[in-house]
Design a protein that fits this description.
The protein has about 400 residues and is α/β, with parallel strands linked by helices. It contains ten helices and 17 strands. The chain has three domains: about 1-25 and about 50-75 and about 380-405, no CATH class; about 85-175 and about 355-370, no CATH class; about 230-340, 3-Layer(aba) Sandwich (Rossmann fold). It is about 30% helix and about 25% strand. The strands form four sheets. Strands 12-11-13-14-16-15 form a six-stranded mixed β-sheet, with helices on one face. The two termini are about 35 Å apart.
Length: about 400
């Protein structure tokens, strides 16, 4: 037998109230019928001949009411021997004070602590990274556990794939990680000029800002050279407007993104394309075979996207470029995504990401028990205590009425 909130057991001191009342109360005297009161005289008598308990049955009922009420608010529950209840903890939460309280409470209730890793080992596996949360949840359901409580950071990057329905035997508790401030990358534009890209991540968002520094950088920070992207734009006379808009977008990227863009222009006749990173083909003539590099070409085929990838190193533009098309379809942003390898940069700093997905988004439409950093447990014994409390209260009121107490 255990209590979720044992501090409320101090309320049992309230038992002294009905005991004191019953010790000091006097038993009601007998009624003797008299024909006249004229011969009765007042006499001085002791109020108490001795202290003793009166109305023991009522005292027992009232004491039971207090005991039941205290048991209810203290979270009385029975400890059952069950090896099929797991507490699955993500690596790093052992240092979280709030999580440690929950871990200590649940392990005291008989939960077996496991690691949120592949196979759910008892001991932490070095070098083993957390896999997709959805895969872990599926593995938990296949384990046929009576109950599983998962303590997790609920990171955005670890929820990949389709959302699944969750078994009601799994309870998910999310803890927010501390905010993180970090340096994403340092790029040297010139020997005296350095760009520092700083990042900030919290549970709600991850953001970046670029600062310019003219001071020497410490040796502990890895400094990258400004990447150079060479682009060859091939266009026919009828695509002159398209070419100008494309060049304006590339120049805007060079001003805002820490990369150096070298642009050359040419026509579709007699041009060498072997020494360029990107070939932008604004012509309806046949495209020459590329031995290396990447290709962005105009295509007359209808598409819902302005820039669409059609193969590993080939993309197409589905519309003729105008100012309105460039603005409405975010041409500059899409080109910046092609020219910069942000995925590689993100992989190097992904461990700094503190964003979490709210439970309302993660598990909406499921039967899963969710909470946000608070232990949520249901004790089946509570309903029986409440029922017994109501029955005892009714009996106490009836007996008290009959005995005029």
């Amino acid at each position: 037998m255990q209590f979720t909130q044992p501090i409320f057991l101090w309320a049992l001191a309230g038992l002294s109230i009905p005991i004191t009342i019953h010790l000091l109360s006097r038993k009601e005297g007998k009624v003797i019928q008299l024909g006249s009161l004229r011969h009765l005289q007042e006499t001085s008598t002791q109020q108490f001949k001795g202290i003793k308990l009166n109305e023991v049955v009522l005292l027992a009922l009232r004491s039971l009411l207090i005991i039941l009420f205290v048991s209810l608010i203290s979270g009385l529950h029975w400890q059952t021997e069950n090896s099929n209840r797991w507490l699955v903890v993500e690596n790093g939460l052992e240092k979280n004070p709030s999580a440690k309280v929950v871990i200590d409470s649940l392990t005291a209730q008989g939960f077996e602590q496991r690691q949120l890793q592949k196979g759910f080992p008892i001991e932490k596996q070095r070098g083993e990274k957390v896999i997709n949360y959805w895969d872990l949840i599926s593995s938990l359901e296949q384990s046929e556990l009576k109950q599983a409580i998962v303590l997790s950071f609920s990171r955005v990057q670890d929820f990949t794939g389709l959302r699944k329905s969750i078994s009601p035997t799994i309870q998910w508790i999310t803890f927010t990680a501390d905010e993180s401030n970090f340096i994403a990358e340092v790029i040297q534009q010139t020997p005296e000029r350095t760009l520092i890209r700083k990042g900030h991540s919290s549970a709600e968002h991850t953001s970046f800002e670029t600062a310019l520094s003219f001071n020497p950088i410490t040796d502990s920070i890895k400094i990258k050279r400004m990447p150079l992207v060479t682009i060859l734009i091939i266009s026919d006379p009828e695509f002159e407007n398209d070419k100008q808009i494309m060049k304006a977008a590339l120049e805007a990227i060079a001003k805002k993104v820490p990369i150096e863009i070298s642009i050359r222009e040419g026509q579709s006749e007699n041009v060498s394309i072997s020494s360029f990173d990107w070939l932008i083909w604004l012509s309806e003539t046949d495209i020459p075979k590329l031995d290396s590099g990447k290709l962005l070409s105009y295509s007359s085929k209808l598409s819902n996207q302005l820039v669409e990838q059609v193969s590993a190193n080939r993309w197409t533009i589905s519309k003729r470029l105008t100012v309105d098309v460039a603005l409405q379809e975010n041409l500059t942003i899409q080109l910046a995504g092609l020219l910069t390898n942000e995925q590689e940069k993100w992989n190097s700093i992904a461990h700094q990401d503190r964003r979490i997905l709210p439970d309302s988004i993660l598990f909406s439409g499921t039967e899963m028990n969710t909470t946000n950093g608070e232990l949520k447990s249901v004790h089946a014994i509570n309903k029986y205590i409440l029922l017994l409390l109501l029955i005892t209260l009714v009996i106490e009121r009836i007996v008290s009425y009959q005995r005029n107490q």
